[in-house]
Amino acid sequence: MKHKETRPVHQDSSPSADPNDSRHFTGLDAEPGALARAFLVRWIIFAIMWWGLSAGKLSQPILIIVVITLSAVLSSLLIPPQQLRVMGIIRFTPFFIYLSILGGLDVASRALRPSMPLKTGFINYSLRLNHPTARVIFVWVVSLLPGTASVQLAGDHLRIHVLDQDLAHRKRLRDLESNVRALFRSGQAGKIE
Asked: Of 8, 65, 159, 168, whose Cβ has the fewest other Cβ atoms within 10 Å?
C-alpha cells in the first residue's frame, strides 16, 4: 500500500483571506434590491457627470447610454452599496473644505517662507474605523491635514509623515476619524472606545 504524501495547506494571513473580515467586500455580496438601488443612483451620478463634462452635448446618445450603463454596472459590482448618512455628509462637507483650505495655506506658507523651521518625522495612529470605505476616506483625507501625508496602512495602524511634530496631529486625526465615522450608518464604521 502506497503512502500518500500530504502537504500542509498554506494559510494566508492577509486581511482579504478571511471572508468574514470587514475589509473584504464586493458588490456581489449585496442584496439584489440594494444592488439595484446602487446601480440606479450611480447611473444618475455618472449621467450628470457625463453631461457636465461634455457641456450638455449629446452627439452620440446610444454610446453615451452604453458607457454610463457599463460604468454603473461595474461600479455597483466592484464597490458594494454604501449606507451613508445625509447628516454625516452635510457635516463632513464643510469639514473637508476647511481641511483642504487649511492644508493649502500651510503648503503655500511653507513654500513662500522656506526658512520656516521643520521638525519632520513619523507618527503612528491606531485606526478604529472598521468599514473599508471609511478607512480609505480617512487615509486619503489625512494628507489634507496641514503638514501630513499617509505613508503606510498595516492592519489598524497608519503611519503618517509629518512636517512639524509639535503640531496637535493626534487631535486633528481624532476629529477627522469622528467626521468620517459620521458619514456611515450606526455600527458600520466602528466604535470609538
From this structure: 8
CA dihedral 89, 95, 96, 101 (to 10 degrees): 150
φ and ψ of 164, to 5 deg = -140, 105
Rounded to an integer, what distance in angstroms lies between the CA atom of residue 125 and that of residue 59? 50
Residue type, 41: V
Single out the residue of 174, 150, 176, 175 nearest to residue 162, CA to CA. Answer: 150
Instruction: Please state whether the predicted TM-score (pTM) of the whole model is above 0.90.
Output: no
Amino acid, single-letter form, for residue 11: Q
Query: 100-146 pLDDT, tens per residue?
Result: 888 888 888 878 887 877 788 999 999 999 888 888 889 999 988 88
Q: Which three cell numbers stand for residue 45?
A: 451620478
Q: Where are the domains of the chain?
A: 22-78, 86-181
Running DSSP on this structure, what letter comes out for residue 10? Answer: P
